[in-house]
Amino acid sequence: MPSRWIGSVQLELGFLSSKAPGERHADLPVAFSYGLRPAFEIGAGWGVHLRDRLAGFSNGTTVSGPADLTLGFKWMPVRTEAGVMVALAGTAKLATANEYKGLGTGDEDYDLTLIVTKQWDTFAIDGNVGHTWVGDHLDTTLADVVHYGAAVRYSAGEPLTLVGEVFADDPNGAKAQWQANVGIQYALRKSFVLDAAFGRKLKFAGAGLGDHNWIHRNVLNANLRHRM
Fold first, then answer.
1. How confident is the model at residue 155 (pLDDT cuts 50, 70, 90)?
2. Which residue has the higher pLDDT, 187 or 208?
3. How many distinct structural domains can be found in the chain?
4. pLDDT-derived band at 6, boundaries 50, 70, 90
5. What are phi and psi of 98, to 5 degrees?
6. How far apart, in whole angstroms, are the C-alpha atoms of residue 161 and residue 182?
7. pTM of the model
8. Residue 8 lies in a domain
9. What span, in angstroms and rounded, lies between the C-alpha atoms of 82 and 150?
């Protein structure tokens, strides 16, 4: 959620690795956010993307390079004493990655997400739903995506928080892609937070549940956040 303080700065460094049959991906993202007004942040994200064991590229089975640049905002118009928070997040993905290497689509994407949180003393529930307007890739028209999810957070005592979440991307005209994560958040200091999660992504590739054609992807994600 956005900070309530003007001028607050957050820097986030991350590592994401995912593995599925026949391919392996890795990302090194960097994100920056700034509290422009109370409960309103602007931010930017970038990084490096690596794809391994891909077929169809003349320069070998491994491709790497800069990822797409993203610009965004978070606005929290509702924050009650009962612990209810409502926020709106918007993101624009700019086509800065090399589309011919498969590192980007070569077009802009735009996303709006509604986030609702209920906070108790040591327990919180988050829910979100959003829509991504997806740009085209070369001569291919890509479907827009509706995404939704829920998460629970439990403070197991300073400085440890346990997190579990499930979410899905639901492209127009295709089967939803689900992912479930479990992880921890550990406050190294008051302004330094390390979070790590392991998840499993499921993409249905068959005509019916009886076909057992689920594509499994293991996902490992770690981030270090510093708020100044």
1. very high
2. 187
3. 1
4. low
5. -80, 110
6. 11
7. 0.84
8. no
9. 20
Q: Is residue 60 part of a domain?
A: no
Residue 140 pLDDT greater than 90, yes or no: no
Question: Between the CA atoms of 190, 194, 199 and 201, what dihedral angle is there, to the nearest 10 degrees?
Answer: 90
Six token digits for residue 191? 């302004």
Within 10 A of 20 (CB to CB), how many other CB atoms are there?
A: 15
Which residue reads 């076909």 in tokens?
A: 211
Which letter does DSSP use for residue 137 in this model?
B
Cα of 132 vs its chain's centroid, Å? 13
Instruction: Quickly tell me which residue has 């924050």 as its tokens.
Output: 79
Closest CA to 65 of 74, 73, 57: 57
Which of 54, 59, 67 has the alpha carbon at shortest distance from 21?
54
Using alpha carbons, select from 92, 96, 157, 85 the residue that is nearest to residue 128.
Answer: 85
Q: Is residue 219 part of a domain?
A: yes
Check pLDDT > 60 for residue 216.
Answer: no
Looking at residue 203, its pLDDT comes to 59
Of 141, 138, 120, 118, nearest to 128 (Cα)? 118
* Helix or strand run (H / E) with residue 121: none
In-domain check, residue 186: yes
HSE toward the beta carbon, residue 55, CA cutoff 13 A: 2
Mean pLDDT value of segment 112-119? 97
Q: Residue 98: what pLDDT?
A: 85
Asked if 39 and 79 touch (Cβ cutoff 8 Å), the reply is yes
Q: Is 103 exposed, middle or buried (0-12, 13-18, 19+ CB in 10 A)?
A: buried
- Full residue range of the structural domain in which residue 184 is found: 72-227
